[in-house]
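Re: weekly structure request thread

Next one in the queue (257 aa):
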Amino acid sequence: MHAAARQNRAPIRPNVPDGRGEKGQPLNEQTLSERLERVAAHVPAGARLADIGSDHGYLLVALMTRDLITAGVAGEVAVTPFQAAQRTVRENRLSERISVRRANGLAAIEPEDGITAISLCGMGGETIRDILDRDKARLSGKERLILQPNGGEQPLRQWLMDNGYRILAEELLRENRFDYEIIVAELGEPVRYTAHELYFGPLLLQARSEAFLAKWQRRLRLKQRTLSQLTEARQAVSEEKLHALKQQISWISELLT
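Done, posted below.
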């Protein structure tokens, strides 16, 4: 890839408002949550962005207002957030640059949109995986995927690997007592991740940040408590589910040792 092309695809780094978006200031298209600011940081400069499950459309409007994207598509399947996104775009006088469409998943994207980046945020990892898998025909293979799953990261990474996507960046942040992971991927040379890498995240596992270790300390306590409760209650739990839980406890324990 030429140097100029690499430069165009490099992550942008907007100013992050010290994580105060959801702690004192009302969220809007000017004041994003820290989570959405970190998602925004991985959108390539000058991208044509489709935000699927756009909710109020804040991400697209913020990026367009900052002149960081050149075109946007907001996709929403539910009527209330669809109308909210329409209102946000209209009130910011961006209707000619951001299209708000009521559609299921990637059905919001048309070939003539020339989309170069797709964000899917705030859904379960399995839901994001299912959207990508169902609508694979709408992917050109040239888009950057910026994914922020609420849980279910392992099956989502599995889908990315199985479909030829390489994970370029991963972030973990804690906001309002929740742990959020951001996964950035592009189609590229085939890559094989280990079971541990799929579970913990290949780049997160490599970096082993304080936030990463703290997350898994919390998860370990939760899983140990769940196992203890299942054992004490003698509930009928499938052997497969019990084995998976014990394996996860073993992996996390090894990680933290």
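Strands lie at 47-52, 69-76, 98-102, 117-123, 144-149, 165-175, 178-187. Residues 1-27 have pLDDT under 50 and may be disordered.
Next request, please.
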